[in-house]
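Entry 14. Two folds queued back to back today. First construct below, sequence then structure tokens.
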Amino acid sequence: MNDSHHSTARFDGAPPEDLLRQAAGYLRAYDLPTDLGETALSATFSEAWVTLELDGAGFSLDIRAGNSAQLHQAREGVLVVLDQISPETCAALEWQGEVARNVRPPNFHLGTVLDVRRVSANFLRVAMRCEGICNLLSGGMHFSLLLAPGPVPRWPEVNDKGRTVWPDGADKLHRAAYTFVELNPEEGWFTFDVFEHEGGQTTGWAKAAKPGDTVGIMGPGGGDFPQADHMVMGGDETALPAIRRILEHAPTDRRGEVFVETADPADRCDMPLPEGMRLTWLRRGEDEPLLEHMLAATLPGPGESRFVWLAAEAGIVRAARRHFREEAGLGREEMYLSAYWTA
């Protein structure tokens, strides 16, 4: 555990009612591991560790991380949660230690387009040169792409209180999450895939992008590689890059099943697959739906090393969450269920 970067905050006064339980609920909604006690709550972000502790005079916050970007991301996450519970309390916090102020966020980078090429019927692969690429190597497999509405962008900044301020109004940025396909720190570039869909803002950008165009990059943005002996994975086109990357990093002795549903069979691609895992491609509208395959998959029993990973439309994910939590009895640490889009 590398926790060389550290910041703390203090609030004196009556804390919001049921603060720890409320905060734990918000954090768990993001599938973050938490440990809730009578007077303290701890949570693990991707590569950062947070402790919120009550005392007779108020409460204190302690955040530790391996680098400045991870520290800033975790602190922003904590502030978002506290804003939901009590904006007044959040605004009154006094921060000490390593806190970025009056600069661009430590997890912000500029990216420059190198090229865009088609890799399948409905996917474009974008290659980007990125300053500070070494900061993207750990902390998750996702990042946020920031697209400005005009030729002179206004990027996010950190104010004198250490909060990230995002441009609004005519300068509001389009933000979309993507998965790294390849990261090359030696040469300073990375690639990611864009699934083309009608009316998509990133689709339009990718089709028109030219070498030298500049965008904003925020990240890494979470999405850890699951650690389990047996996995059941599923997703649609939007999840295909993440599924492929997880499989690329899977141990050779992993077992389980993978289900990928696409509308166009031409988007099927070669997937690295451990010998003990089986991949099933599904055609939307013709084969049995993705959700039915996920719910019918066989999982080891309680106490064994198992994990369910699903990223798809929000309704599918809600139904899967009910099943795996209430009927299959999986704990939060045994699954990642994410709505990548809403119908």
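Second construct, same run, same settings:
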Amino acid sequence: MDYVTARETAEQWNVTERQIYNYCNDGKIDGAVKRGSVWLIPINAHKPLDARYKKDDIEVTNNVKCGDCLQLIDEIPNETLDLIVTSPPYWAKRIYNGSGELGSEATPELYVSTLVSYFDKFKSKLKKDGNLFVNIGDTFFGSGAGAWSKYLDDDGNITEYQKERKEKYFTTKPLQPKIQQNGKLYQNKQLLLIPARFAIAMQENGWILRDDIIWHKPNRIPASVTDRFNNTYEHVYHFVKSKSYFFDLNAVKVLGANGKMKNPGDVWSINTQPLDGNHTASFPEKLIEQIVMAASPKNGVVYDPFMGTGTTWVVCEKLKRNFIGHEINNEFVQYAYSRFINTIRK
């Protein structure tokens, strides 16, 4: 990694050198290193956001960090969060950070138990009347999900960009670990029902499941299968800690055929939202808007432990919620930062 001095960074960001040292001492510049009494700054580092600012007379706080959410969660006081909303890495679908990451477990059962342990650790940080929404996808046993043998763009042409991106995030070999078939759960073409197994495991650990929302994707690209129907939806589970919790149904009611406002129901038809860059699994802003409006108060605190490219952060900015985000992939954090800045400027 290439570095520049604090003075050079100060000139680039139009702040004082002292402010750069304060940023470094507070741990606000990812990748900054100290050599003796001198701080060195990564050449591609971004200026930290001011933690607080006014938006329409509401003071908004943003706290975004690059790192492992299992470690960073300890920095959040208990019963701070009004809402946790996230989409964790799915099992054996993509490579984000290398071996040992969430989603690379040896079996789907181990993945489910590992994922549940994450939310058990987050639980004490959620207010008693808080909400948890988790978007999670499924897969088939023996699936070649993640394997690519061609590098084609939308016009069918081979491009170096497609080749590099797909080899980095999907690899040219199937991502599923080699598991011996047993004629039961482990047999080729078996839908693993990972979302359902996760929901049941969460219930067994004391979470109350309130909704199983079906996110229908009208613009889903059809798969080239001939012996089953195309999958066009994912699950979004709504959990709570107690039977009494915050929920503002009026904020998300829709106009009914009779001209009266009604409950939108638990099947949401929302197109996927493509983004520029390398993140290939970003959920759409409209999906998160529904959740944030219904499940958190204005000026409440929303947390996304698997922030990705910052969709939840952008939505919270628009809806005047405070946001805490953690993401282990620095490339995604940098993208999210730029995306957020562009949102503020609009």
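Quick look at the second one. Residues 1-48 form one domain. Residues 330-345 form the longest helix (16 residues).
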